[in-house]
Amino acid sequence: MIVLDVNDERVVVDTPDTTPLLWVLRDHLGLTGTKYGCGVAICGACTVHIDGESRRACVTPTGGVQGKKITTIEGLDRRGDHPLQKAWIAEQVPQCGYCQSGQLMQAAALLLAVKAPTREQIVQHMDGNLCRCGTYNRIVRAIERVVKEGSGL
Amino acid sequence: MTILKEKSRHSRRDFLAGSGATALALLADGSVAVCHGAAPQAGSVAITAWVRIAVDDTLTIKVPATEMGQGAMTALPLILAEELDADWSKVRVETVTEDAKTFGNPRLGGRLYTAGSTSVEAYFDVLRKSGAAVRRVLIYTAARHWNVSPADVMSEPGTIVERTSGRRLRFGQVAALPVLITDVPAIADADLKPRVAYRLIGADIPRLDVPAKTRGAESYGIDVRIPDMVHAAILRAPVEGEVPLSVVDDQAKALRGVLAVVRLPDAIAVVAQRWDIALAARELLNVEWTRNSPFRSADSAADLADTVEAANDMGRRGVVWVERGDQPGEAPKGGRLVEADYSTEHVYHAQLEPLAAVAQVDADGKGAEVWIGTQSQSVALEVATEVLDTVPGRIRFHFMQMGGAFGRKTLFARELLRDALLISRAMRRPVKLMWTREDDVKQGWFRPATAHKLRASLDGDGRVVAWQHRVACPSLLGFESPEALARAGGKDALVMGGTDATPYAITNVLAEHVITPRRARIAAWRGIGHGHNRFATESFVDELTVAAKSDPVSFRRLLFGENRRAQALLDKIVTMSNFGAPPQGRAHGLSVAPLKNSLAAGVAEVALDRATGVIRVHRFWAAIDVGLAVQPKNLIAQVEGGIIFGLSALLKERITILQGEVQQGNFYDYSLLRASEVPEIHVEIITSEAPPSGAGELGVPMTGAAVGNAFFALTGKRLRHMPFDPVRVKAALAG
Description:
The structure holds 2 protein chains of 2 kinds.
Chain A: E1 2-6, E2 9-13, H1 21-28, E3 47-50, E4 53-56, E5 69-71, H2 83-90, H3 100-113, H4 119-126, H5 136-149
Parallel strand pairs in A: 1-5
Antiparallel strand pairs in A: 1-2, 3-4, 3-5
Chain B: H1 9-19, E1 21-26, E2 32-35, E3 51-54, E4 59-63, H2 72-84, E5 91-95, H3 100-103, H4 119-146, E6 153-156, E7 159-162, E8 168-170, H5 171-175, H6 210-213, E9 230-236, E10 244-248, H7 250-254, E11 258-264, E12 267-272, H8 275-283, E13 286-289, H9 300-312, E14 319-324, E15 336-344, E16 356-361, E17 368-372, H10 377-388, E18 395-399, H11 414-427, E19 431-434, H12 437-442, E20 450-458, E21 464-473, H13 476-480, H14 482-487, H15 493-496, E22 508-515, H16 529-547, H17 552-560, H18 564-577, E23 587-592, E24 599-609, E25 614-625, H19 632-652, E26 657-658, E27 661-662, E28 680-685, H20 703-715, H21 726-734
Parallel strand pairs in B: 4-5, 9-19, 17-18, 21-22, 25-28
Antiparallel strand pairs in B: 1-2, 1-3, 3-4, 6-7, 7-8, 9-12, 10-13, 11-12, 14-22, 15-20, 16-17, 16-19, 20-21, 23-24, 24-25, 26-27
Helix pairs in contact in B: 2-4, 10-11, 16-20
């Protein structure tokens, strides 16, 4: 049994320590907003926060995150109204949308660490998250919108 | 045109009492009928409704296209809502699950099929007329209720209003009136709104799917969870055409949580309580496969060499795609012949959601409930009824959002659904079948490698008088459907699209398809034939420009002749990009790449790191003319995405095959363009009087030649083979 703190809730899961957190979130807890894209931490679709930092859930052993604060896209904002989520709508970022949970979590981690990142910092920080629909420029614009409006965090 | 009258007033009123909704439906011939219920009983009316109006004013509009990120689930209902004069805030959408007869795509053989950038173009008229017809029924019904002439009644968004008294009824109130008048004049073209009256079309209505996609709340096929569901991982034959000979599965079965190992015709599936267990158990399988498939000898490098040879073997006639003029492909007397070869390699769709489906086969094995993302409801139905040897009515589908598709989730994904059904039937339980990324790459169906031979003759004034384009490639349409190829007289639109020399006015044109043997799984891929063909043709036009001692803009202007749309597009892209005046160290390349009825032109601004051979595209401009722009900002987003899709393939992507096996496996050896590598992109729309045409693929075909032509402008060297990887770039520089 592993005890986890997911989106401010205490949950208990019956799985080996080595099970990737991604499958615990999706299959045990039903938090399917976190996506599977590659399984090898190269596409970023499974990005979540562990103690406020972005991590790839597909290569994160569940046993290793006991006692840490896990945040998924479902917990980014209680009402789904995080400044980044609003900016994503304002810029009409998503197309297929499959990578966007990961993109948003990656972006949110940046704004937790750096209050007013430059464009270069944004691009560099987001470089590990693939988007096959090609929404990259809109993602950067949406993050810049939040930075500019100072509505960050 | 027939007009159906209300058939049974009593039953309709009973229905209204029962569910609070009526349905106004458009027949295939454009007339209106009333449906007695959301899902009409057999025998009441022989149609299904496009729209339902509930007494609470909610409008439910059917969407025949499936959503893969292109925005169809917003753009299509918007067209109907425009003519209906709907209050957009009351609109709900519902994906069509069946009835191709009513809802089939007129551009794709009447099947429920979302492909080829066709949705808006194909459904524009039927949706407009449907909306207008329903509006007319509401007006006539309200007029009868008020005992006035329909001419004295008009609509405002969501409301029917009597002009003189100002009396008004909301749509829901009209639908609930005791007497519904459906005996209304049919809608003629003249009854439709003029463009100036549009308030939804062209207004950039926010996409309906975006909010959920920012909250992780959208449900894709891979996300479906149903009670009692188990998980399947699959080991498919490493080489097409091979089957399992023997399976050692003791270790796999010994793993806690593993439920079964299921043998399929060309695969072995492991079923477990959890996905991670199924995946771990799959690693423990020891399968011996047959080794006698003819595809064992497939070698993409050698096969491409054969393809290039076929394109160049001028004695080998191809299937004629276009032939016009007196001397197609011939050099006129005194003319100058220019020739060039181009080639492309296999590329993979790389949609971010790997294939996944959930199937729950009924206890008798003759029916099923299925959750799947697909580009074709019709194909899904055909597969399911064939696999279960059953009738369409026994399959209940839930068509899910797709995490990208790009041609992958068409008929080329039949094995996913087939396997999910077979595994569920064997397990007598609901099963989720998921492919890993590695499965998705190694079992991919790719845009085929192609070879192109281009020949043209220029007269003494530098005009192109004859043009020949030979494309060597397997028949994609023939692979997809031999019957469809036969119906098309052997002409393969999937391979040959974009080889008719449009938008240029050239008198003598010959385009041929030299059909080579299929050596890999091949599929349509965003842009289909235009993706590789426009790379070849627009690179070649640039070569002709040099031969004619002209410049890319003047040369094309001359070639366009009287094509005003093309001239306007060229003016636009030249102005937007300040073509030919790049910053120091960079160069511009131009490409004009129409796709079906849509026109597009692009300019790439390129720099080069000569030491590494890495091409950097700094800026990209595109001008598009899709006739009427239904959702302008979404069109721009689609073209931006298409440009990135095209550049990614051009600069980074290649699938190679050795001894029949795909050599790549994941994003570490099949790289996509990333955030730091994409150009700044500027897209502008030219509105023309033409009907709306597609844009989902429109950004792709322009990219290859734009970058290649910029590279030539920068270096004086020609890149004629995709992808433009650093090895090729350095070889070109040294050559």
